[in-house]
Write a structure and sequence with these properties.
Oligomer: single chain
CATH class of the largest domain: Alpha Beta
Radius of gyration: 19 Å
Shape: elongated
Helix content: 25-40%
Strand content: 25-35%
CATH architecture of the largest domain: Roll
Number of strands: 8
């Protein structure tokens, strides 16, 4: 993964906008700390993009039939009544990735996803992932789609996949939940 000149300029711009003074920056460069920090950042991005999962979504099927095709053990009732709201027909290929994000920084990653050619997956992409990669659901505590938010009078909810006592489930949970290191966030490569 080679950085382009414009990406390097963007990093410098972010550093200067962060309020780091010239002397502080020079000290970081001389001590080697800046290189260590940048290497950690690049390693994090590489880890984030390791696994790619191509999916085929058949928009000609009603959403509830696509959910049924997942062969899940437990599905939250409202999910089967969900409408895509997508003006797409036929079959569409998409490439998905699973992101492991620190629970304190996932807001930042959501904000920055565009810079890496990603966006948070929507519920229809989560369902396609569950259908085509059922074994992945058993590997992680939760796989979350932050791209579709169900608004209620009390809370904003997002869809997630989980495996509870070896039963595959599709439910909603609060957007503000504690997402630990065993959770993954589904994203779409655009």
């Amino acid at each position: 993964m080679k950085a382009t000149l414009s990406q390097g300029q963007e990093v410098l711009k972010l550093i200067t906008q962060s309020g780091i003074g010239r002397e502080d920056l020079q000290e970081l460069l001389q001590s080697g700390e800046l290189k260590v920090l940048l290497n950690k950042y690049v390693d994090g991005i590489k880890k984030m993009l390791q696994g790619r999962y191509p999916v085929l979504i058949d928009y000609s099927l009603p959403f509830w039939k696509r959910v049924k095709a997942c062969q899940l053990d437990d599905v939250y009732d409202d999910i089967t009544r969900w409408e895509d709201g997508v003006d797409v027909s036929g079959q569409v290929r998409k490439e998905l990735v699973l992101l492991q994000l620190d629970c304190e920084s996932y807001d930042y990653y959501l904000y920055k996803m565009k810079d890496y050619g990603l966006r948070a997956a929507k519920i229809e992409e989560l369902v396609a992932f569950a259908t085509q990669y059922p074994e992945m659901q058993k590997r992680f505590e939760k796989i979350v789609a932050l791209g579709t938010v169900k608004r209620t009078f009390m809370n904003d909810l997002v869809a997630y996949l989980a495996c509870d006592n070896n039963k595959r489930v599709l439910h909603f949970e609060s957007w503000k939940s504690y997402w630990n290191k065993d959770c993954r966030f589904l994203a779409v490569i655009e």
